[in-house]
């Protein structure tokens, strides 16, 4: 079994994703459907979460777009 040298990935649930991005639930899922936002990971039949580093990366990319415009 291989282990990453970095800290383990943290999964964050929708309320935290909403708080970090300032986006609402419906808008997040619309962006996911369009391929413009990271896809969640299914944890079970009715539970999903996002990788924290993917959400952080998405936020950083939005800031970079702002700075380059």
From TrEMBL:
Domain of life assignment: Bacteria
Record-given protein name: AlpA family transcriptional regulator
Species whose genome carries this gene: Nitratireductor aestuarii
